[in-house]
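Structure tokens please, single chain.
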Amino acid sequence: MALLQSEPIALIDQLKTVVGDGDLLTEPEDLIPYGFDGTAAMKHAATCVVTPRTVKEVASIVKIAGAAGVPVVTRGSGTGLSGGSIPVDGGIVLCLVNMDEIIELDPANLTILCETGVITKAIDDAAHPHGLFYPPDPGSMKISTIGGNVANNSGGLRGLKYGVTRDYVMGLEVVLPSGEVAWLGSKCVKDVAGYSMKDLFVGSEGTLGIITKVLLKLVPRPKARRTLLASFDSMEAAARTVSQIIEKQIIPCTLEFLDRKTCGCVEDYARVGLPTEAAAVVLMESDGPESVVEEEGDAMAAIAEANGAIKVEKAKDDAHATRLATARRTAFSALARIRPTTILEDVTVPRSRLVEIVNFVEEVGKKHRLEIATFGHFGDGNVHPTILTDETDKKEMERVEHALSDIFDKTIELGGTITGEHGVGLAKKPFLPRQFSEASYQLMKQVKQALDPAGLLNPGKIFDLPETKVS
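Here you go.
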């Protein structure tokens, strides 16, 4: 594979003919912010950053890179938590934040078409005046781009009821490794013509193509919402509460939990009135018609109380609901204040195994002498063990690696997955073969090789492929 350093001036000149000087960064001080994403302890210097404004420019850049044998790493806001947008040696960083237009909002078909640089929350904000709703709400929704969400199939707090990003993608415009532009999907609710190629690109982390436009499904906006916060003296009681809520066929939009350590950090940070002596706190939110919300809220409160909840606090109004929700939404920010490095992990197990994985994480912390807090999406089994450490302490980081290996192995043993919403990228790449059979693992590699035979799109992410010489 050719490196950008081999003929930098010629390649830079070619890129300038596409985007001009203003959308091309080559000075070291300008490149610093593009050398890392939201993943702790991962960074790599970028060689050049290009920020196109049209799909035509993206296609031209990909063709130039392909002809030179230069890798391309696509990037949005850089909020990823798996190292998926970390630059590679000699590669071009293709940042799509300038492609930020909402092209069409179609209330008749309940869809919205936008470029991939649009901020996630802006999509829901645009839908709101029409009485419509875009449910996926990753923690970074105020700054992450929809393209990054699609590339990583992002989840969020509302995943239990509403699903994840994939469930809302109806169509995609994709620039292929050849520089050709393909449209995949349609506005049709039913469409089974050929392979579902759009689904192949959702969650592909920029390794198969560059997503430039997204057609998303919208849903009617809920008329009402009820928010409750229940605290428990054991994780088991909290888990029983969640299980019984589901067994009663109540599907709230949110069922989140925080362990004792997270509660203490959040209370110290946000002062929302959390009971810091509680072993677990569960945030419950129901939305829908007013009568249903009231009924579900009362039922969830009764289930929590029947399971020995220390306290069940019901939001009195929207402001109070926001304050209660703050307990969960500020968890990462609160924990990040404790140590220099915060490693936010992401595993998912069947809901029936939640207590086992949470208790196992606590034991792993003791075993490896690490400070670990745990919070996450109790309703869908997605747990975020968060290791508070210092990346400059090599011995401690070795213990961190051992702890993560233990957690991933236990997750797989329990029938879970090593990532529920963050993606594989660089961070989870070594552990992916543990989850899949050899046939399944090789099948993914074959897809990559078929669509990107030169291996130039985000190489080294998800898995490694043999070096391919470009003639």
